[in-house]
Design brief:
Blueprint lengths: L1 H21 L1 H8 L3 E2 L11 E6 L5 H10 L1 E5 L3 E6 L2 H7 L8 E5 L2 H9 L5 E2 L6 H4 L6 H14 L4 E4 L13 E4 L8 E6 L7 H17 L4 H7 L2 E6 L4 H9 L52 H12 L3 E9 L3 E4 L11 H19 L4 E4 L10 H6 L9 E2 L1 E7 L14 H21 L2 E2 L5
Parallel strand pairs: 9-10, 9-11, 11-15, 12-13
Antiparallel strand pairs: 1-6, 2-4, 2-5, 3-4, 7-8, 8-10, 12-15, 14-16
Helix pairs in contact: 1-14, 8-14, 12-14
Length: 448
């Protein structure tokens, strides 16, 4: 079945690119009648990205750097840091940190401009076909409409929930449920996307995976078997305000758009705001930091309401929070280096996902405990597995973070032509995760 799935994906890739290039002429005609959709106002002139050797400093120093600078990713071999001016760059390279770093991107403004050439800055007045859709990134409004249309097209297996709650700025956070028509109790799996605004590929891959599953139900044997035994719940936007802001102002914005009392700095890092070891290191109490944890656990409506929806769906067998970049499969814990109670089962699940992903294009993904990089607290994956499972109907959810492509050549500025291959390699990974959680359920015990 896995061989059949990979063959199906690769054929789809060929068909999609053929359809795309056949539509280029028509697309050019449409542009003149379109309205602006991307309007960046933030300048990155003078900014640089440094690549530093992970082995050159202990995890505690990486944690300090993460709370001081804009750390873009951390992997077992390197971590990337954006500096906003020469003063920050000099501080990073000073004896305070003793990190071994070299310049990865000398001109962030130029890199962003190059990325902007890969996306359409105008909106077509007509709805794109599925083949065209994945050749570009899309705005919040476009994505909402696309999911609504997809739910209508496959209404026999898809339920669209218009809103599980609203963001700081009043935007809806919808959810979608997909389950096959075969009768019987189904295990529930929870995917959430776009918790960090600038990680556009996370939302795009969620779209690709969801569309592949619903469109191949009844056609692909593996997809059909999984959806007949599993209900997938997808929350496409945990951070809709931040995502919109990356289209209208700052492409590299990370947090939500929440104001902070006593500070002019905006935003909370939603992936440090969950009620699981909140504020116990691995996050910042400085509102100006990109890892600001918020004023309290679940102090942001986005984490509050999406987590409440998670508990409403109990029992959940497994959950993935999709991120970028670094090509990592991270499992609990993030707050401590100690093994989680179900470490053997979590490791087996992560290994199954890694194998399935790498079998498509041989892309190298690293599987490890999140804390082996550096400590993080108040994160979604720890909450899924930890405190979130305390009200999960007796089940404990596998809690994973998956960091998608790439390993830093483009980083958050991954060109639109990487959406399809990123989605293609993640489809088997998602199916492997769903099957493992279904077949190897975990049970919550009060001792942690």
């Amino acid at each position: 079945e896995s061989v059949y799935l990979i063959s199906t994906i690769k054929q789809l890739n060929s068909d999609m690119y053929a359809a795309y290039y056949g539509c280029v002429a028509a697309a050019i005609i449409c542009i003149s009648a379109a309205s602006p959709r991307y309007m960046r106002t933030t300048s990155y002139v003078g900014q640089k990205i440094f690549r530093c050797d992970t082995a050159s400093v202990p995890p505690s120093i990486i944690e300090t750097i993460d709370n001081t600078f804009d750390v873009l990713t951390v992997t077992p071999t390197f971590f990337d840091v954006r500096t906003r001016d020469s003063q920050e760059a000099n501080f990073l390279l000073s004896k305070n940190f003793k990190a071994e770093c070299e310049i990865l991107v000398s001109d962030v403004e130029g890199a962003v401009r190059q990325f902007e050439k890969s996306i359409n800055t105008t909106t077509s007045s007509t709805r794109k076909s599925s083949e065209e859709w994945f050749q570009d990134y899309h705005t919040y409004e476009e994505i909402i409409e696309w999911y609504q249309d997809l739910a209508s097209e496959y209404e026999n297996i898809v339920k669209y929930v218009p809103s599980v709650g609203r963001s700081v700025e009043g935007l809806d956070m919808p959810a979608l449920h997909v389950a096959g028509t075969k009768a019987g109790l189904k295990k529930k799996i929870f995917f959430q996307c776009q918790i960090h605004a600038r990680e556009w590929i996370s939302g795009a891959v969620c779209q690709y995976v969801f569309e592949f599953l619903v469109s191949n139900y009844g056609l692909n044997p593996e997809v059909t078997e999984v959806l007949d035994t599993v209900e997938l719940i997808l929350v496409p936007f945990v951070n809709p305000d931040g995502y919109k802001y990356t289209w209208s102002s700052d492409r590299l914005w990370r947090k939500n758009r929440q104001s902070n009392s006593g500070s002019a700095c905006i935003g909370t890092d939603l992936n440090r705001n969950y009620d699981d070891h909140w504020g116990q290191g691995g996050s910042s109490n400085n509102p100006c930091s990109d890892t600001y944890m918020g004023s309290g656990p679940f102090s942001s409506p986005e984490t509050q309401q999406t987590s409440y929806y998670f508990t409403e769906q109990a029992p959940i067998a497994g959950a993935i929070d999709f991120h970028a970049y670094g090509q990592l499969i991270l499992r609990p814990w993030g707050y401590t280096t100690q093994d989680a109670p179900d470490e053997p089962q979590s490791l087996a699940c992560a290994t199954a996902v890694k194998t399935a992903v790498e079998n498509v294009f041989k892309a190298d993904y690293t599987s490890q405990k999140a804390s082996e990089l550096y400590p993080t607290t108040g994160s979604a994956d720890d909450w899924f597995y930890g405190n979130g499972s305390s009200t999960n109907g007796g089940a404990r959810a596998y809690g994973f973070t998956i960091e998608l492509r790439d390993t830093g050549r483009y980083g958050f500025l991954l060109p639109a032509n990487e959406i399809v291959p990123s989605g293609q390699e993640m489809v088997p990974g998602a199916l492997a995760f769903m099957k493992h959680c279904r077949d190897n359920p975990l049970y919550f015990k009060t001792e942690m």
